[in-house]
Amino acid sequence: MTFTPDHFNVWMEIPVSDLDKAVSFYNDVFKTELRRVTDMGPNEIAIFPAKEQGGVAGHLYPGKPAPKGSGPTIHLACPDSLEATMERFAKAGGEVVSDPVPIPAGRFAYGLDPDGNSIGMFAA
Fold first, then answer.
1. Which residues form the VOC domain (predicted)?
2. Domain containing 67 — which CATH number?
């Protein structure tokens, strides 16, 4: 029997060295409002919003990021064009490390956030 859930990815966590700076970076780049939460564990976290209650999202947490570019890649939805998101990403202190890559579902580009986390910016 093969396990095939509705959503194989159920949550993601991105470790950051400075939660305040990281929240500002992700809010600016993805034109969103991460929600700060203090009662879900030992540390304060900042949750990415999802349209529906229980939607697949994730959070930032104070932690030790993997060495620059060596951790897993998290792909995040662009709020507008891929190029506009890439421009904000670089302006906010991230490093865009690829040109746009076309795939059947849309396009994406790779970047490194200020902590060196590998982030995919995806536009359908």
1. 4-124
2. 3.10.180.10
pLDDT in tens, 82-106: 999 999 999 999 999 999 999 999 9
Is pLDDT of 42 > 90?
A: no
Dihedral sign, Cα of residue 96, residue 107, residue 18, residue 63: negative
Q: pTM of whole model > 0.90?
A: yes
Q: How remote is the C-alpha of 83 from its chain's centroid? A: 16
Pairing of β 73-77 and β 95-96 = unpaired
Each residue's pLDDT tens digit, 69-81: 999 999 999 999 9
In a domain, 3, yes or no: no
Number of domains present in the structure of the chain: 1
Q: Is 24 inside any structural domain?
A: yes
Q: Is 5 contained in some domain?
A: no
Q: Are 76 and 118 within 8 A, CB to CB?
A: no
| Residue 50, amino acid | A
75 burial (CB, 10 Å; 0-12 / 13-18 / 19+) is middle
Read off the amino acid at residue 66: A
